[in-house]
Amino acid sequence: MASLDRIDRRILMELQQDGRITNAELAQRVGLPPTSMSDRMRRLQKQGYIKGFKAVLDPEQIGLGLLVFIEVSLDKTTPDNFQKFASAVRKQPEVLECHMVAGGFDYLVKARLHDMARYRVFLSEVLLSLPGVKETRSYPVIEEVKDEGILPL
Amino acid sequence: MASLDRIDRRILMELQQDGRITNAELAQRVGLPPTSMSDRMRRLQKQGYIKGFKAVLDPEQIGLGLLVFIEVSLDKTTPDNFQKFASAVRKQPEVLECHMVAGGFDYLVKARLHDMARYRVFLSEVLLSLPGVKETRSYPVIEEVKDEGILPL
DNA sequence: ATTGAAATCACTCATGG
DNA sequence: CCATGAGTGATTTCAAT
Fold first, then answer.
1. What fold is seen in the domain A6-47?
2. Ranges for the HTH asnC-type domain (chains A, B) (predicted)?
3. How many CA atoms lie within 13 A of A40 on its CB side?
4. Which of A70, A114, B9, B147 has a CA-to-CA distance to A57 between 20 and 30 Å?
5. Are B92 and B85 in contact (CB under 8 A)?
C-alpha cells in the first residue's frame, strides 16, 4: 500500500531538519527533478507520513525557562475520571504533552512554565484541583540533554 | 532589547501551527504589509525566537508505534559518568529526548521504538550497558493524550 | 513603519519522452 | 518516472514617503 523507499526516507529526513527547504533545493539534494519532487511531497502528505510543518521556538527566549515532568496518579474507583482528566489536561496550554502510561502511575505530564512560582500555582490550581487526582510527583528539569523532534528513519 | 509585541506573538503562533505559510498569507492574517512581514520574520529569527522549521511526521506511519519513557539512575560515585551518559545518549537516534531532573532519579529518557521486542534489545544493549547506569524504570505509553509541540504565547 | 515597482526565484500544470 | 516550457504567484530589494 504505502512503503517508503530510500529516497522517501531522505526526503523525510531533510524535511525534519529544514521544514522550509524549497522544492527545488530538496530535489537537488536527493538527486531528483523538481517535478518528481513535487509528486513525492504530495504523496507523502496525502498518505499521512507528513502531518504538517511548524516553527520551532526557543522556550527560554519566550519566557518559559522551566521544564517540568509530573507523574500523576488517579483515584481508580471512578473510571470516567480518566476521561475527565484527559480532556481537562488537553485544554491547558502549559501542558505540552500528556501520556497515559503503564507502570507505577497513570499519566506523565510535560509542562513548560515561566518559573517555580508559576509552577506552584499551576500545580495546585490546575493539576491538583482536577477531580480524581490522588497524587502527583514533580521532576523539574535541571539540564536538557537532548530535545530534537527528529524521528529516526 | 528584544520584547515581543502583540503582532509578534500572533506571528509566532501562526508559524507554530503552519510553518510553511507563505509570507504573503501570514502578512494578510495579521494585517501587515508583506514587506513589513519579511522584516519581522528576519528579526524573530536573528533574535533567536525562531530556532528553525521542521516537518512533523506520524510516528505510527513510519513504524515507530511504541513510545516509552525511562527513568535512569546513575551510580553517583564517579561524577564524570554524567558526561559520558549524556554524550552517549545524544547519539542514539531512538532517544527523542533526555533530561537531567531533580528528584528521585537522574535522567528521564523519551524513546520511540518499533515494538517491545526492539525495546528489550534497546534497553539491555544500549541503556543498561552504558557505564554508571545503576537502575532504570520503564513506562510504556498506553495512550498519547496530548502531544503538540506548541508553546503558549 | 509603510507603500510601490521591478527583478528574481519557485511552484504548478500542461505537454511530452 | 523523467524532461521541458509557459504561466502564475511569491520573495526580495530598492526606492521613496
1. Arc Repressor Mutant, subunit A (1.10.10)
2. 4-65
3. 23
4. A70
5. no
Name the one residue in this structure whose C-alpha cell is 518559559: A64
Could you tell me the three cell numbers for B48?
A: 533567536
| Chain A residues lying within 8 Å of B69, measured CB to CB | 99, 101, 108
Query: Closest Cα of chain B to A112: distance in Å?
Result: 8
Q: Is the dihedral of CA B69, A85, B63, A41 positive or negative?
A: negative
Residue type, A48: G
Q: Is A140 on the interface with B (CB under 8 A)?
A: yes
With contacts defined as CB-CB under 8 Å, which chain B residues touch A100? Answer: 141-145
**Distance CA B34 to C1' D8 in A:** 18
Cell numbers that stand for B79 in this block: 561524577
Interval B72-101 mean pLDDT? 94
Residues 55-114 of B with CB under 8 A from A: 55-59, 61-62, 64, 67, 69, 86, 89-90, 93-105, 107-108, 112
- CA Rg value for chain B: 20
Contacts of B145 (CB under 8 A, 6+ apart): A86, A89, A90, A98, A99, A100, A107
Mean of pLDDT over chain B: 95
B24-80 pLDDT per residue, tens? 999 999 999 999 999 999 999 999 999 999 999 999 999 999 999 999 999 987 789
Which amino acid, A5? Answer: D
Q: Which residue carries 552517549 as its cell?
A: B88
User: How far apart, in whole angstroms, are the C-alpha atoms of residue A16 and residue A111?
Assistant: 23
Neighbours of B95 (CB within 10 A): 22
Q: Give domain limits for chain A.
A: 6-47, 60-140
